Amino acid sequence: MSKIIVVKIGTSSLTRPETGHLALSTIASLAETLCKLRQNDYKVILVSSGAVGVGCARLGLNERPKAIGVKQAVAAVGQGRLMRIYDDFFTSLQQPIAQVLLTRTDLVQRSRYLNIYNTFQELLKLGVIPVVNENDTVAVEELKFGDNDTLSALVASLVRADWLFLLTDVDRLYSADPRLVPDAQPIALVSNIEELTRLQVETGSSGSQWGTGGMTTKISAARIATAAGVRTVITEGKQPSNIEKILQGESIGTQFEPQPEPTSARKGWIAYGLVSEGKLYLDAGAVIAISSGGKSLLAAGITAVEGEFEQNEAVQLCNQDGKEIARGLVNYNSSELKKICGRRSSEIPEILGYEGVETVVHRDNLVLI
């Protein structure tokens, strides 16, 4: 069976930092590499940043706009130009591509989520390389992916990819930013993302002048992808040919091993595809029952309810310190839960005036984070 590879390339790799103009030699090398992968029977999806950066260069702007309305307008200018350049390079190599623009809403609604999955499957069957980007022109701040690292991880999880390559402006993950700390230690393999806390890895918080990502978003993306069973690699974007070498077994970049027991596609959708609408704070007994016992959440274990949400929307399940331990779909809305939290299931009919369900979040709709 053909393996599926998702490749994400960031603005910092696609553009020249001093001007924001496209680095055409990098794009040419990327197109050539992805076409070779296709010839070797890999199915390939490209997640590409750059629309806003290209739009800025096209309009002569000296910095990335911060106002969302301006950013959306600039993205509209840049997206068409970016796709034209990709199409020129891939066409010269006789490789068909397709533009796929996504918003977070596309993943929040289950029917649209499944439609996207089907679209990707058909494109890959046809031998097409989908070129994916966030639809910045219409996305609203509350429902944005925020960065294409997260988008690429969600796409990799959606299609159950074998590999996710995050191409960036450093060659691998380091214990600190190597551009600022000369003796920063390289990290070749991460078996468990929690190791990074133990190693006190400094990830920074932002990307380049023209991009939105940074090492923090890449580690978050690796967490999402590896939970779905996707091996994830951080490597240098200026050398796309490294992808082939890594697939052949060379130790380049930083690899994140996939979890041995990946979450199902549906639970991955609950955990990372949906936007949380509120929080439920749990007592110690409920935390243990959920984390270790694989139990459903009952009203008796809830100590507080935060936010406004409706039945079947996603909420965070937190311990008393506010740390998220799980996420799930609730069987009651927020106003109902505020009335029944801390109460026994047998008391619910009398409190609400109707026969409700026993569980607040059923274990089938609950995912540990």
Describe this structure in words.
This protein is of the alpha/beta class and 369 residues long. It folds into 2 domains: 4-267, Acetylglutamate kinase-like (Carbamate kinase, 3-Layer(aba) Sandwich), CATH 3.40.1160.10; 276-368, Archaeosine Trna-guanine Transglycosylase, Chain: A, domain 4. The chain has 14 helices and 17 strands. The protein has helices at residues 11-14, 24-39, 51-59, 68-92, 104-108, 110-125, 148-158, 195-198, 215-227, 242-247, 265-273, 284-291, 334-340, 348-352; strands spanning 4-9, 43-48, 97-102, 129-134, 163-168, 173-174, 186-187, 189-190, 231-236, 254-256, 279-282, 297-298, 302-306, 314-318, 324-329, 359-361, 366-368. Strands 3-4-2-1-5-9-10-8 form an 8-stranded mixed sheet, sandwiched between helices. The longest helix has 25 residues, at 68-92. The two termini are 31 Å apart.
The strand order across the widest sheet is: 3-4-2-1-5-9-10-8
The residue-averaged pLDDT reads 87
What is the CATH third-level topology name of the largest domain? Carbamate kinase
Largest sheet: 8 strands, mixed
Rg from alpha-carbon coordinates: 22 Å
CATH architecture grouping of the largest domain: 3-Layer(aba) Sandwich
Distance between the termini: 31 Å
